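Worked problem 6 (solution included).
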Amino acid sequence: MLNSGSRKAVIFIGEMRKSLRSLGIGIVVSTVVVFFLTPDLLRIVQHHLADKLYFFSVAGPFLAHVKLAAFAALYILMPWMMAVFWRAMGKPFGVEGWQVFFFVLFTTLLFYAGTLFCYMVTLPFGIKFLLGFSSEQLRPVISVSRFVNFVTLFILAFGAIFELPVFMVFLARVGVCSRGFFQKNRRYALLLIAIIAAMLTPTPDVVNMLLMGGPLYLLYESGIVILLLMRVK
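Solution. The predicted structure is:
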């Protein structure tokens, strides 16, 4: 006999499997289509964040364009991915219909807000700080492959963590964590946010940590406010 948690996990996995094949095909097709646009996309990102990029292997530029195309495909298809995830997540907890729609909508909006904040604010500050250590004797030579990895990783990370309020509402809605739990554990949440900011920001300085940790803590508090407005205990 499976316990309640195990049954819910089985239902979640079963629901995810229904859409994984079509989602995988969509990602592959989108990656191939976007691949032909990656020269322009890389030029835009490079103009915004870096000066000159180099490659140190024959396949380096090609692989960098493939990675960028895959990232762009994931970015474009995020609403679909969130719809698949929340349908599967809501099924075992009885969260369906309009509730799933709102979870998908706000998760997607917060994801894009986080990625734009990272691209427009955090990454420019972080890269400028890191390249500030260059000198006449120490000149930066940035690999295009590592540059693409660096940029896409942090953009996706910021997009993911900006979804915090939605997951707080969901956990309270299904009875996993109460609103009181989030209120009573602010100090631990602040500590965890500081650790996450230190790990994910591109530089270890306080300014860049605050650029990530500050909005993340505000999102945590906004999750509590939303629960109060929804009268969820």
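Discussion: The mean pLDDT is 85.
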